[in-house]
Amino acid sequence: MAGRTPRTPLRRVRAPRPPRRIGHTMAYLDHAATTPMLPEAVEAMTAQLTAVGNASALHAAGRRARRTVEEAREALAESLGARPSEVVFTSGGTEADNLAVKGLYWQRRDADPARTRVLASPVEHHAVLDAVDWLAEHEGATVEYLPVDGHGRVHPEALREAIERNPDDVALATVMWANNEIGTIMPIAALASVAREFDVPLHSDAVQAFGQTEVGFADSGLAAMTVSGHKIGGPYGIGALLLGREYTPVPVLHGGGQERHVRSGTLDTPAIAAFAVAGRIAAERREEYAREIGSLRDELVRAVRAAVPDVILGGDPVDRLPANAHFTFPGCEGDSLLLLLDAQGIECSTGSACTAGVAQPSHVLLATGTDPDLARGTLRFTFGHTSTKADVDAVAEAIGPAVARARTAGLS
Amino acid sequence: MTQTSQRPLRVLAAMSGGVDSAVAAARAAEAGHDVTGVHLALSANPQSFRTGARGCCTIEDSRDARRAADVIGIPFYVWDLAERFREDVVDDFIAEYEAGRTPNPCLRCNEKIKFAALLDKALALGFDAVCTGHYATVITREDGSRELHRAEDMAKDQSYVLGVLDERQLAHAMFPLGDTLTTKDEIRAEAERRGLAVAKKPDSHDICFIADGDTQGFLASRLGTAEGDIVDESGTKVGTHEGAFGFTIGQRKGLRIGHPAADGKPRYVLDISPVNNTVTVGPVEALDVTSLTAIRPRWCGSAPAGPGVYTAQLRAHGGETEVTAALEGDELTVTFSEPVRGVAPGQAIVLYDGTRVVGSATISATSRTAARVA
């Protein structure tokens, strides 16, 4: 092993700020976007950065890298209740989603040209949603969006009904494990059981769920599952598709075929090593972490409700990610709130995607039947391993006046 | 007292993605103000990249603005004002041309978008001022009221397009580029020094919402084409056109008149009549305007009490001319000391007292030496 780098005391990762902000409380509450790397992951990564060796090479340096990669694969498999051979490393969640959705579609359609129907929840991340839409536009897929309830949940009966309409033409189904905007957890095991009944492969994007709720791959009965490094305290640019061994999705990236011949590209040994460390910690600390972060989140919800009595809590009140709080503030623009809170050092998100920097009403909220005007007034606060009570206090103090001011600016 | 020496303000800097507004925001931040950058998304379907030197509404421009804000070290947001822009600027632009007038959408945008929709939202959110990269000077008088003046550098002066601002709008305006004698090269050098990547970006020209610069094509696509007559002053038909809206008074090129005038001299558009879809052409002398009336006056302060002698500017890059102006109700009557050419209804006339902007109005009718043309 290369020389160990001294442990970096890594509390917060943030860009330099203009001096005017000094004195304000800093509260980073956007961990669902990305969370600081865990010191243990930084250590694992930096230890590898100076070591040479392509994990596909046969010489000693290659063997050393290969060993690191394979040990990481085994560790990650263990953290996710999967077999090592089921771990396909990718460049991140987006690539894993694309590989699952497009690759499985092509595999299934190639085996039987009748299978062109794709069943998807309408609340998926854009990495799934846009991949599915692309299949419809370019590959002859028929996309069917499964109905969701007011909390954004797909019910197993809804999946059953959709498949039963014609079990022979379904290519795949894809339903995220937990929603990145509103935090609702889906009944994945029950959905997977329905899918298996009809031999339909079910993919689930578990990027937000990993580390917050149990995501055992084998127990879930899923065909494929997406996880990502930087959402759990690992590095950016690394993720994995957990892939049942009977599946050989058609590759999205062609090349050396390094990962089970379904994914090509030189393996990123330092990132993979760090991802495995972060994954191990996420799995080991999950229950305790979920409890602690959940109580912080509950405090935040109470504080926001006290300050803004007519606030609407998004997502399922019980079956939800412990680190997620999603609010709708009637009569406000989420953008205005974001600006006002940002100016006070509180960093959160409106939760919805941008087009050219312009916030669009969230497709998740629209799918749950929320009024489009109301859907513009959302904020998402997400906690992580560096969150403290001080973060909650900062929001508790700022949210009331910010909402009052944003309401005067209105929905212009 | 200059605006940059005031107490620290909460400033919203409108950032187009160009070099001027980036340097303006940087100067405001350097002066100690608490600056937040905003890029206005004005097009419902923005193009990905700039084509040539036009526009400020592409995604690339938005990125350039964000990049500049990040270097300056200020928060940055994109605000979607596309709907307001379409209603107040683009639709108005089309309607004005349809009515045979020649609008200036930049003035309209300053009046209705930057210093109305944007300013109102900024004030509601707790900002004190809106900052832009215009070249103009704001002077605060002893009593706290404010005056708009031409930029120190007359060659760069943009006070004309700000002549629509009233006292309230002016009270919340900040133009950090106007109060120093700076050439464009120096602004670019300053941007370079500040590490702003937009330092070498070409200036934008023309109308931002007509990406290819083809105003006639844009109008034709909105208003359709309708063949009509081109006539001379005597009413004799000398040619045809595909829509009266596509012409501007004083225009010489693109008339496509087959045979030359009797005197062999070039002919110019004298009048546009949308009612009977007729364009009247004639010699350059017939363009001489001796007086005009203008409506919708807006004053940078109190309205002038009686008739007075001012200098007037009639185009964004036009020169000054001496006038006598008198206000009657909401109608301004302006008499030129020397006849001027190329004055079209729809254009704005901005009145100055020395370097101070007195106010502006929209030209409704012009009087020529011979006859009054509406």
UniProtKB/TrEMBL annotation, chain B:
Positions marked as site (Interaction with tRNA): 134, 347
Region (Interaction with tRNA) location: 156-158
GO biological process: tRNA wobble position uridine thiolation
Domain tRNA-specific 2-thiouridylase MnmA-like central: 217-282
Assigned GO CC terms: cytoplasm
Residues bound to ATP: 14-21, 40, 133
Cellular localization per UniProt: Cytoplasm
Residue positions of the active site: 109, 208
Catalytic activity of the protein: S-sulfanyl-L-cysteinyl-[protein] + uridine(34) in tRNA + AH2 + ATP = 2-thiouridine(34) in tRNA + L-cysteinyl-[protein] + A + AMP + diphosphate + H(+)
Statement: the UniProt record of this protein carries the keyword Cytoplasm: yes
Molecular function (Gene Ontology), one example: tRNA binding
Ranges of residues in domain tRNA-specific 2-thiouridylase MnmA-like C-terminal: 290-363
Keywords recorded for this protein, A-Z: ATP-binding, Cytoplasm, Disulfide bond, Nucleotide-binding, RNA-binding, Transferase, tRNA processing, tRNA-binding
Family: Belongs to the MnmA/TRMU family.
UniProt xrefs under NCBIfam families: PRK00143.1, trmU
Function: Catalyzes the 2-thiolation of uridine at the wobble position (U34) of tRNA, leading to the formation of s(2)U34.
Protein name: tRNA-specific 2-thiouridylase MnmA
Species name: Streptomyces inusitatus
